[in-house]
Amino acid sequence: MFQPFTEEHEHFRKTVRDFAEKELLPNAEAWEESECFPNEVFKRAGELGILGAHYPEEHGGSGGDYWFSMVKAEELPRCQMAGTTMGLLVQSDMATPVISDIGTKDQIEEFLVPALAGDKIAALGVTEPGAGSDVSAIRTTARKDGDDYVLNGSKTYITNGTRCDFVTLLAKTNPEAGAHGCSFFLVPTNLDGFGVSRKLKKLGNKSSDTAEMFLEDVRIPKRYLLGQENMAFMYLMQNFQSERLIACASTTAGLFLALEDAVTWARDRVVFGKPLIKREYWQQKLVDLYTKVEAGKSMTYRCADQYNHEKYVVKQPLSFETVKLISMAKVSWRKSAARSPTSASRSTAARGIWTNTGSRAPGVISDWSASEAAPPRPCATTSPSSWGSEDVLCPVPSWNRTNPPSCSIAHRRPRCR
């Protein structure tokens, strides 16, 4: 049987689990309400060696393999705050790996080492208001001016963006070259011309801060260019694989937690004389969900094994086969992350949308799939007298229910999305 975890991994697992359950979880309600967790959490994670376990010792890490990062991603969701998990994973697995891969000794000392220690907070600046999945369409530019670069543009959906000390930022150094004209820069956020436009409000991941930021004639020295000029698109495609893989691992753990709570509830909840868990429909539903999550976990582990072998053992760029597998896993989990919590929450009926049940399931469900988990509800454009026997999906989006436009659909048991 394939078993990637050693005794050392399991000791690390206990460290991360204790951190999540004993130090983070007790603050979940307060941090969700304030929509931010304290900066000291980064420092504490750094002190415990959680952020840098899979980085080389000379980079400020512990010298472990990639399975240490998998352990971290599996245990952090026990804090019941997907936002806090995301903020920490951006710090350790999204904004910083590229610095370790291609950074100079000075860049590693100035940015990576303090980030892994939790002394500096990092963010990854790629997405823009007009460029999401189409990374090559970014419009932020970096123009050479003597021994400096001058940056202009904006970024959005940036996790850790309201309080980060630096941004690993993608910009166009040759706009005419498209994807082949992108470069990475390490941008301190205390420079003149750098600012945060606003903190974004979200349906889920509430305990993390997500920001829009702007750069107006931000001047940085050439030593902050990360890697070679105009090669960042290739660096980013490699970096994306660790992002996707760590997201798959964290999602797997979150879904298992949601299912565990659904099963606990189904055992305790008696309806018409017997527990829900004794109902054949829910037995089949829960087994189907567990099977899908277990299959996804196996695929994630296969990807992690290949990633670890190529990146940490033979120390070479990722092969096309590994990139393909990780991309497939990400696509698969994107669907499971929405469907599995939805089905699990239905076993708890109205309880599935509460936030103060003392249970971890609502927290996991609302964070991983905030827009999917809520049960059907009446459309604001109709009255109960018009309901019939069929379900109809109302085109009025949920964010406009308080002041809905007129709806021309003849509703029967209507539902708003």
Summarize the topology.
Elements (H helix, E strand, L loop, with lengths): L6 H18 L3 H7 L5 H8 L18 H10 L6 H13 L2 H6 L2 H13 L4 E4 L15 E5 L2 E12 L6 E7 L9 E7 L5 E6 L10 E12 L3 E2 L5 H37 L1 E2 L2 E2 L4 H34 L6 H27 L13 H9 L23 E3 L19 E3 L1
Parallel strand pairs: 1-4, 11-12
Antiparallel strand pairs: 2-3, 3-7, 4-5, 5-8, 6-7, 9-10
Helix pairs in contact: 1-4, 4-8, 5-8, 8-9, 8-10, 8-11, 9-10, 10-11
Provide a brief overview of the structure.
The chain is α+β, with helices and mostly antiparallel strands and about 425 residues long. It contains eleven helices and twelve strands. The protein has helices spanning about 5-25, 30-35, 40-45, 65-75, 80-95, 95-100, 105-115, 230-270, 280-315, 320-345, 360-370, and strands spanning about 120-125, 140-145, 150-160, 165-170, 180-190, 195-200, 210-220, 225, 270, 275, 390-395, 415.
Explain this structure:
- It is globular and about 80 Å long.
- Strand 2 and strand 3 form a beta hairpin.
- The protein folds into 3 domains: 7-121, Acyl-CoA dehydrogenase/oxidase, N-terminal domain (Butyryl-Coa Dehydrogenase, subunit A, domain 1); 123-230, Butyryl-CoA Dehydrogenase, subunit A, domain 2 (Beta Barrel), CATH 2.40.110; 234-368, Butyryl-CoA Dehydrogenase, subunit A, domain 3.
- The two termini are 44 Å apart.
- Helix 1 (7-24) runs parallel beside helix 4 (66-75), helix 4 (66-75) crosses helix 8 (232-268) and helix 5 (82-94) packs antiparallel against helix 8 (232-268).
- Mean pLDDT is 84; it is low at 353-417.
- It has 417 residues and is an alpha+beta fold.
- The longest helix is centred in the middle third of the chain and has 37 residues, at 232-268.
- It has helices at 7-24, 28-34, 40-47, 66-75, 82-94, 97-102, 105-117, 232-268, 280-313, 320-346, 360-368, and strands at residues 122-125, 141-145, 148-159, 166-172, 182-188, 194-199, 210-221, 225-226, 270-271, 274-275, 392-394, 414-416.
- It has 11 helices and 12 strands.
- It has a 4-stranded mixed sheet, with helices on one face. A 4-stranded antiparallel sheet has the order 2-3-7-6, with helices on one face. The protein has a two-stranded antiparallel ribbon with strand order 9-10.
